[in-house]
Amino acid sequence: MWPLFLRDIRLSIRAGGGALIGVIFFLAVIVTIPFGVGPDLNLLSRIGPAILWIAALLACLLGLDRLFQADREDGSLDLLVLGNDRHMLPLTVLVKCLAHWTGSVLPLVVAAPLLGLFMNMEPAGIGATALTLLVGTPAITFIGAAGAAVVVALPRGGLLISVLVLPLTIPVLIFGVSASYGAVADPAPFLQPFLILAALTLFLAVLGPLAAALALRHGTD
Length: 221
Description:
Blueprint: H1 2-14, H2 19-37, H3 41-62, H4 69-73, H5 76-83, H6 88-118, H7 123-151, H8 158-165, H9 170-182, H10 191-220
């Protein structure tokens, strides 16, 4: 599994720009928001956590079509599906998801504190948003793995993945933004939505690879 993890990290970085395209898209969304809502620093500070989360969510969706595409193009996807039993294939998908998240999504989490300064966010809000992104974005990858497995055989499945995955990520977005707001707004709690967010990630770490493995095996059959 470790060689597979390292191989997929290299592929996620090299294929189509990988992390660089995601960070540039992330930056582009953050930079354009002040032009839409105006130069009110107080308003930007209030909506900052939500904007960071929405931008990160959209940036995460960019590279999901590459999760299994390279393996399908070189024929290794068939070997992974046919060479693994029903118990090992979900573990293989889990490793590929973790590698994709490390290579393509983790740079977004690292860039989030700097972009939070552009939104005039408080240090506590920046730290809380970065923490919730660190905990919550893997859940988006696990959901995306199932969508990528469904459309892997289609020649242009990138847009379809976004259509399939985006509605399923709404709970992750809600609790991520709620926890981020709770760190800077006294009446709003931080711990409860953060724990629910962590629970969603752990739950999807099991369900997502299982669903993706089932879709891959069905597609191969």
